[in-house]
Model the fold of this input.
Amino acid sequence: METNMKKLLALSFILSSAALTGCACLGIGSSGEASGGSSSSTTAVSSKSATYAFTFGSKRQTIELDIKFETGKADIAPLYDHQLLKVKEFMEMYPDSSAEIEGYADVTGDAESNKALSLSRAEAVRSALVQRHHCDATRLSSAGYGERPLIGTGSVAELAANRRVLATFSGKKAR
Done:
């Protein structure tokens, strides 16, 4: 029963990761091998806390970090460390990868301030990865993209969803 629960949790993580990152989701057999119809390179890896399955045909993979930022703030509470661990584990599994930490803001305030705030959020995540989780700083860069709403901008929940940070991985070192 416990083994089946672990498999179910792993599959759930794979499906949610694929939905968040836009990458192909593959079946993981009982032997741990990935299956799926694709001509691109496929990797399935189990880590301490999760199973990842990604198709690297596009050479870039994105992980959305579920970190809730207050309006106008870039602080990251320690309760979000589990989100940062997703980036650390990915970096450990793919030692030749690098990541750009992308920060975004909601539409509250002016565009220039929001661009600076989104960069502050990305830099805060990068700093936390390096200082709290000992990630290699040379493999991480940060960028602020300001206001690029994913969803509407009318409700408090929509504004909160647009205050986000992504980690986009590539096979080249960040500069």
User: Anything to note?
Assistant: The chain is about 35% helix and 25% strand.
